[in-house]
Amino acid sequence: MIIIRHEDVETILTGREAELVDLVDHAYRLHDEGRTAVPHSAFLRFPESRRERIIALPAFVGDDEQVAGVKWVSSFPGNIGKGLPRAHAAIVLNSTETGRPEALIEGSLISAKRTAASAALAARVLLGGEFPRHLSLVGCGVINEEVLRFLTALRPHWPEVTLYDLDRERAAAFARRCAEIVPGTRVTVAADAAGALAAGTLISIATTVSEPHLDTAACRPGSLILHLSLRDLTPEAILAAQNVVDDPDHVCRELTSLHLAEQLSGDRRFVGASIGALLRAGGAYRRDPAKVTVFSPFGLGALDMVLARFVRAAARKEGRGLEIADFLPQSTDQERR
């Protein structure tokens, strides 16, 4: 068993955005080919509050280096006011031959980076590689900071970035970090969410809301929204948009905006494509210039497994992590009794 701490994960993944986009691309293609097993995530909620939750995401990836495991990730929005990260995660990888757990990896950074990598990949595919000058980020937390890093790996300079967050101080602090990530970019903090939606034609939404609160009336025709937090847009906005997802069965659950749209419309015909199918087809997707396109990824556990496998391999190669030889029973004596 190898135990890999957050510090080691951060060292391994820093500056490797392009590689991680390729890994996410690989995972999506495998999923579309039916070479993954991704059961529905299990949500543990608490009677006192519906905002806090802990989610189990099990997955198997059946390529030449098979990997299986589970991510156990919490989301406690109240942590932000306590000076703690909103999300914490641990990933366990199991042997696909014996089922024995082989790695325990701190997973919050893997979770954030795979989300951002999927967003950047979708933007590249759905925009046909033609990135706009202006990027808007709604929600100034860890996820959108990673989104900015990953989009910058694909487009090295963004002339303009517009930010919005309910917490103005949080938005101001994020603006200062933007100057470090993309030097020379003109950064503006919008007065409200509508202002951010109207400013750019590429918009990433990553908030902690639990119920829809945004429509797309302020968006310019042809805008692309990376709807990463899944519950911001109203079901009516989803039904009026072109929609691309990672997996319809996964994303139309747990009262996401798309789940509510399905309940409102009675079917899933509003889902136009999955990202894996588009990748396998060469990325061809005809966007309606008069409509808003929305990419809504539920966040497949297969992505976490592929990145965790990458981290484990790098940790062993670089001599990182803590190897524990006696974590598991070494004989079958107990099974004979």
TrEMBL record:
One of its GO terms (cellular component) is cytoplasm. Transmembrane segments: none annotated. GO terms for biological process: siderophore biosynthetic process. InterPro entries: NAD(P)-bd_dom_sf, ODC_Mu_crystall, ODC_N, SbnB. One of its GO terms (molecular function) is oxidoreductase activity, acting on the CH-NH2 group of donors, NAD or NADP as acceptor. Pfam families: OCD_Mu_crystall (PF02423). This is Ornithine cyclodeaminase.
